[in-house]
Write a structure and sequence with these properties.
Length: 173
Amino acid sequence: MYSFMGGGLFCAGMGNILLIVSTATDYWMQYRQSSNYMHQGLWRYCMPGKCFPHNDSIAHLDATRAFMILSLLACFIGIIIGIMAFIHYSSFDRFDKTFAAGILFFISCFLVFLAMAVYTGVTINYYGKRYGNWRFSWSYIIGWVSVVLTFFSGIFYMCAYRMHECPRSATSH
């Protein structure tokens, strides 16, 4: 049980760090315009030597930001509850912290998946038709890696929950 919880905490911690890096950096997409490479993130777009904030409220960027921030919060709360389950913190006896942490990691995974899907769909639809020389960059790729890590942290915590529940349910009969 503890090895699953340790693996879940490791994946969740790494996933949360990658979520922070992905959300905060400006390399979601790179493109070439008039012989200069430019890049943009969720908060700013950058031309050679200078970055500018996204002044307009662009719906897909707002949705992606919101989903990424909610995913960060769910993952962070899941890590706190996961640590409490790991050290047997017992302020809530009727509250299974292992199960709650697993659910929070799955919620985090779902939210970051929604963020990545919204960004991918709109970017391919918009830039794919208008510009020929663009590509997704490393911040975007890190976002997809965090989807996988938060998913596996949820899997690990659900496995730990099942291992914890099976002996208890066998002795209750």
